[in-house]
Amino acid sequence: MPRPSDAVRQRAERIHRFSRAERWIHRSTAALMGLCVAAAACLYLPPLAELVGRRHLVVTVHVWSGLLLGVPFLVGLASRAFRADLRRLGRFGPHDTVWLRAALRRDRVTARPAGKFNAGQKVYAGWLAGAVLVMAGTGMLMWWTGLVPPVRRTAATFVHDWLALAVAVVLAAHIGKALADPEARRGLRTGSVGRAWAEREHPLWQPEQPHRPEQSGRPED
Fold it and tell me: Are 208 and 116 contacting, i.e. CB atoms less than 8 angstroms apart?
């Protein structure tokens, strides 16, 4: 059989996207978030509350999974790759504005330029980080009842409950996006993505560590 051309081989190669540390951070955070949301659902939805029972245990699981949610992030700061990606997520350039405008208009004709992370991912990461901090703060006010007067605790409960609903909706949208993009999920599972996918979805991204199919072993951090 004829050998594939260099152009075909280049587009078929795998590109390193996430380090082992970053994949561990994502999986650990996702597991804790899933546990926290599941426990919250068992507390607030009567059918689930009746089915599960043991309310004190469920409350304990919800509180501790919420408090531990930031641990993977803090431990992950030891990873240089993770810190570099945090800087990328925190930078918002002109191309991100173009991406957001095209996405909001549902414009499939206008190109959506993106670096390693597109504008939607940057907005999602920033919003979720802020929401988690607010949820943790209001949750502690609800849990340790002696910290503030009853009026402020009631306000904290109101903010916590409605923000929890918003977080659930945003997480559902995030999971839906992930299910619709197998290559993105593969990048988080294995650490590498196809060059063709990277060129299509993140044309401004310049990968630092290419990973070819003929190479053995996992990419280094």
Answer: no
